Amino acid sequence: MNDDDGQYFYHPLDNIEDVEIFYEAVERQHLTKAISKERPYTYWTIELYDQKNGIRGGGGLGVLAADTRRVAEDTGVPFALITPFYPSEAHQKMRDGRVIDEHRPVNYRNFGFKYIDQVSVKCCDTLCSLDVVEKKFKNTRIIAITEPNFGELYSGMSGSDHRLYQEVSLGFGGYAALKLLGLKPAIMQLNEVATFFAALARLDELAHNGMDFYEAVVYTRKHTLYTNHTLVQAAEADFGYDQFERYVFPNLKSLAVKKWLKDKFVDGRIKLSSVTIEIAELRSGVSKLHARVANYRDIAGNKVKFKAITNGIDMRTWVLPEIIDFYEQKGLLDMYLSPTVDYKDKLGVITAEKIREFKNLGRAELNRVLKTRPDQYGRILEFSNEDFIFDFKRRFVDYKRPELPFSDPDRLKKILMRKNAHYILTGRVHSGDETMSAKLRKLLKLVDKDEYLKEHVHYITDYDEELAYGLSCGSNVAINVPIVGLEACGTSWMKDIANLNILISTHDGGVADGSINSYLSVSGDDESKEIDSLYQRMDEAISAYDNDFDLEFIMQKQLETFLPVISGSRMLKDYLDYLFPK
């Protein structure tokens, strides 16, 4: 079976003419063509959070994308990440007790991207020109699509025309950019449904170039992986038929593909998850729990099964270099930062003395970051090595419950007073999320009423990679309390464990990959019991720092359970094993 350039992805399928034989071969065979420089692993994402390379995302989806490329770089996997470059990025600051958005222009030329050429997409009877820009690394590259009116990430509502324009531009424009660069994907990993149009562009080209339509569908499906990051299909926005007539159908050359897509509409509306499921035979969830409970169904109403491949992090980016060196020198991690075969036998090197030594180094890094990060009162914070810090650093969304530790201000105050501790709260409030904006104002007013809390609870605005890194390195205890069943994975907690922080968490997302006894777990039949459990765990964390045996036990147990889970190289290996089984 031929792809667009007449080469073969399937070695055993050369010169197959009979469609029935072809189908039988596909059923027996999975991807066998080796990834190469010309046929890289392609990773499609509407969001990239990689400040070093000038692209600022909105949260974990973008951070994961950046980590995946960096891990591919370290492990030598030919890899192309395709994403928009948004010419405007949002920052947040406090004004009169409210968080406000501030928009700043950015230029790809300032971050080492090279202009390649232009491609175009058809939208609303207009040919829209898109710049293709690229930044090359050793064996990976970032290919970005951009134009001056592209706007910023998540501009407009999720079902809006502008959002559809951005997604169509990434899919059709990004696929055209690959051809422009002489690249052909060995695999297309769709990082959430906003990237569906990349696979659609490939299907359309195969069918338009003469491949039998059903062969083109099977071929595209066999080479497309849909990675889902959300739990409930019903929460996803949809698009109308009229929107597709203006933005999508004009970009399709194959009448058969156009008809196939039109048949997917129900009452004039379409969910991208439904068609992404149809176009991708390979499907993954981002934690064991997520893959088990995600409630998605295909067009026929059948529940979709996801392969569990838990997210990981690029530890060289997120972990204090001295800690990474220590892990490697002591034989806990190999050269790819995957746990060694006998890492559990070596965890005794994680002593209370080493933990405190690394926390002191991390505290210096945190202080460096905080020099330009005032709290809600405009104070520049600086902490000594003796200060004890709890933190909450996650997107400020309802299900993550940033307000939970403040449910009983008097009890929180007593806990902090035990060790004269500080609580640092940070996280981005999505633009237009009035519910969470109101919760944040209420929380800060509560703090403002108590003189002790005013001195020891700090809200830091404009949460980003730098602040996340500083807190992961420099805090003592991380709070992670999503409503159980709503977190797909999360990766902030992974950075905390690798940086030798005590984790206090509900048993949700990727945390649920381990046992409930692997960390300080928050549990309860209702929220009031969870709150009581949370305060007990905060007390235990303080006590642990006053007892070397307890501190060592908690840290060693966390690493024993989660070191394999948090490894980015383990994540990439799991993907490759799934895509290219031996």
Description:
The chain has helices at residues 19-28, 60-75, 161-180, 196-208, 213-222, 241-247, 255-262, 272-279, 288-293, 315-318, 321-329, 352-370, 409-418, 434-448, 451-456, 465-474, 492-498, 527-544, 548-566, 568-579, and strands at residues 41-45, 79-84, 88-95, 98-105, 114-123, 126-136, 140-146, 187-191, 224-228, 239-240, 269-270, 282-285, 307-308, 389-393, 422-426, 457-460, 477-480, 502-506, 520-522. Helix 17 (492-498) crosses helix 19. The protein folds into 2 domains: 11-311 and 574-579, 3-Layer(aba) Sandwich (Rossmann fold); 324-566, Glycogen Phosphorylase B (Rossmann fold). It is of the alpha/beta class. The model is unreliable at 1-32 (pLDDT under 50). It contains 20 helices and 19 strands. It has a 9-stranded mixed sheet with strand order 5-6-7-2-1-8-9-12-13, with helices on both faces. Strands 16-15-14-17-18-19 form a 6-stranded parallel sheet, sandwiched between helices. Strands 3-4 form a two-stranded antiparallel sheet. Helices cover 39% and strands 17% of the residues. The protein starts with 18 loop residues before the first helix and ends with a helix.
